[in-house]
Amino acid sequence: MGRGKMVLLPDEGEDMWHTYNIVMEGDRLRASTIRKVQQASVTGSSTSSRVRTTITIQVEAITFDTGACMLRVKGRNVEENQYIKMGAYHTVDLELNRKFTIFKEQWDSVTIERVETACDPAAHADLAAVVMQEGLAFVCLITSAMTVDRAKIVYNIPKKGKADDTQRKKAITKYYDQVMTAILRHLNFDVVKAVVIASPGFVKDQFFDHMMKNAVQTDNKLLLENKSKFVLVHSSSGFKHSLREVLEDPAVAMRLSDTKAAGETKALQQFMSLLASDPDRAYYGIKHVERANDSQAIETLLVSDTLFRSKDLAERQRYVRLVDSVKENGGEVRIFSSLHVSGEQLDQMTGVAALLRFPMPEIEEEDHSLDSDSE
Questions:
Q1: I need a surface site. Which of 159, 176, 224, 305 has the fewest CB within 10 A?
Q2: Which pLDDT belongs to residue 194?
Q3: DSSP calls for 121-187
Q4: Which domains can be identified in the chain, with CATH numbers?
């Protein structure tokens, strides 16, 4: 896996997130782009026009807009071009359904696996979630690689006893209608395997009853035919951070047993429970994890994709070597997306953790002896 090029054609927003994790500073990128060109006429006046051209840039900066799933890549032009001078800066907006080429000096195993994941149709759009509480709701899509907000609904509902009861009922009905409209607008039921509706109390149940009654009255075949895909679960609030507990719910886990998002959540749950019950078999932080790997002790490695986007090449290669080594020793590697709640949680633990095949109390003991030596 040395130097080489790869031509990619993104056909959905999630592919842009994969590309963000593939393109690194120092790579070269060839893509179609729009450039504003100034032209002087014989009379001396100048006109400007926008032309489409193909440019090859040396990548210096990459930004990803999670909401719009857009990727902007900035760098200097490194190939002759009739519209853009050599060395001139240009920003390329990578677009859906328009191919581009990435040139790398080193294609490592983690990057190759990322490309394979992006090309695997089974790894895509698994789950939708509606997290709600009275007057607030978030409609999210949870794919194998990311959690994307599709809609936020905020509606002012009068408190009980503060207004006439009919006013309150009308407000609740309008709020439910807005949530239902968002579900119909943003969810593709041909792809989504399950739709989780989560809330504290009975909000989820009352909303679901309202939506299904409405579907019967209006003969909404889409909702009626997909009724079995809805799963109602408890959450502590209607805010997006409640997604973590929602994904851990056994009813949801059962529905999503074959999806990557559920796999990540389950692996992190196993790590946390092991950390509490048998801490000599659960370690996090690169130094501890590398020591465990030196003894071929790692059963499952959990690592955040944030670490592979490091601008420090040596640091990035350190994590690639760790991943390769764990696989060679027969261990399982799970690369977590930092756009999932489970990935965010792993990032808080330095982005790398391991479940061991056997206890290694000496790792912790070595640290304590080092501390006492330094005192």
A1: 159
A2: 87
A3: GGGS--EEEEEEETTEEEEEEE-SS-EEEEEEEE---PPTTTS-HHHHHHHHHHHHHHHHHHHHHH-
A4: 2-119 (2.30.30.870), 126-256 (3.30.420.60), 260-370 (3.30.1330.30)
